[in-house]
Design goal:
With 350 residues, the chain is of the alpha/beta class. Helices cover 43% and strands 15% of the residues. It has 12 helices and 12 strands. α3 packs across α8 and α10 runs parallel beside α12.
């Protein structure tokens, strides 16, 4: 079907269309000829929808002034860090290795020391986070669960152990993949010193709208986070906020997306394992994290050879940190026929 064409399994884009209700809300907004900057603190209707979402899904009770509407998950993390560096005197930032590549750029942008922790193994992670909490009193740590790229996710007991450290350590939870836990349910808490950053990109397929939100128990911090989002990006697009309002009217959409992704990830993993390729079943997320063949020195050499010889594009693991040097990541949330043919080509290179 895709003979001769490059099959892209690199970026984490989904095969899903946006919810019909999201599109309808955007069209209604445009047809009403509404125009102008949105409120700095975010649309009140969207905040009400978010509160309902947090209550129904996580049993979390939040108030409107505990929520900041931001221009996507990464902008949310940036706005939180702006607040922490300028108002809380945070000097160190820890982020996962392997982890989402833009994390490594945050230290340069915010002029703080960036350090990694090992998130290739949860036992090691728990040891490291305790060490960080004990020895770095002016540090913040980003936790992404399920983790991008390797799909590790924290279970209830592990989350409780993390939250026990919140007095010593500032925690930024990247909840971009909150909808894609396969085994463990996410624990969403509003303890002090903890900032939850959500994105509509993965949960509701609104990546091109750049919309997300931050939840914190500290109302004053939310004001600052909204201000820093404005300073960098002005107010979050009202069209994007209307799309989010519409998406939150279709919560069954999330369950369908989760079922689709989980099946594809597991079916893809079975194909690799049957071919005797190292691939552990992830605990969540969009992706598979695979070991490159021994004949290659590093993930970049493998990825270039794969593209040139088999016309499949993947993400070299070294982009995610040195723990990924001998791995690569593929996106499993795309069309199955395309994914299956891409996997067959990858296996053929081994």
């Amino acid at each position: 079907m895709y003979s001769g064409l490059v099959i892209r399994l690199d970026y984490g884009e989904s095969a899903f269309q946006q919810p019909v209700t999201a599109k309808a809300e955007v069209i209604r907004h445009i047809n009403n000829e509404e125009n102008g900057y949105a409120p700095i603190l975010g649309d009140a209707i969207l905040k009400a929808k978010i509160i309902q979402f947090l209550t129904n899904k996580f049993g979390l009770e939040a108030e409107p002034d505990q929520i900041s509407i931001v221009s996507g998950g990464l902008m949310g993390i940036n706005s939180v860090l702006n607040y922490l560096v300028k108002e809380k005197n945070i000097k160190h930032l820890f982020y996962p290795n392997p982890g989402f590549p833009p994390y490594s750029k945050l230290e340069e942008y915010h002029m703080i020391e960036g350090l990694t922790y090992d998130f290739s193994n949860k036992k090691v992670f728990m040891e490291e986070i305790r060490y960080i909490a004990k020895n770095f009193k002016d540090a913040a740590i980003i936790i992404c669960s399920p983790n991008n790229p390797n799909g590790l996710s924290l279970n209830e007991n592990e989350w409780k152990m993390v939250f026990e450290l919140q007095k010593e350590l500032t925690i930024i939870c990247d909840d971009s993949f909150e909808n894609y836990y396969f085994y463990n349910n996410p624990i969403v808490s509003l303890c002090s010193n903890c900032y939850r950053v959500f994105s509509f990109s993965k949960s509701f397929s609104l990546a091109d709208f750049r919309i997300g939100f931050v939840v914190s128990s500290e109302k004053k911090s939310v004001e600052y986070i909204s201000k820093y989002n404005w300073d960098i990006h002005l107010s979050t697009s009202m069209i994007a906020q209307k799309a989010a309002i519409g998406a939150l009217n279709s919560l069954d959409y999330q369950e369908k997306c989760k079922e689709f992704v989980e099946k594809q990830v597991m079916d893809a993993a079975k194909l690799f394992i049957a071919a005797d390729i190292t691939c552990s079943y992830p605990e969540g997320g969009y992706f598979l994290w695979l070991k490159i063949p021994d004949k290659y020195n590093n993930s970049m050499d493998f990825s270039i050879d794969l593209l040139n010889r088999k016309r499949v594009q993947v993400i070299p693991g070294e982009y995610f940190g040195d723990k990924g040097e001998h791995y690569f990541r593929i996106n499993c949330s795309t069309n199955w026929l395309k994914l299956k043919e891409g996997i067959e080509r990858i296996i053929d290179l081994y």
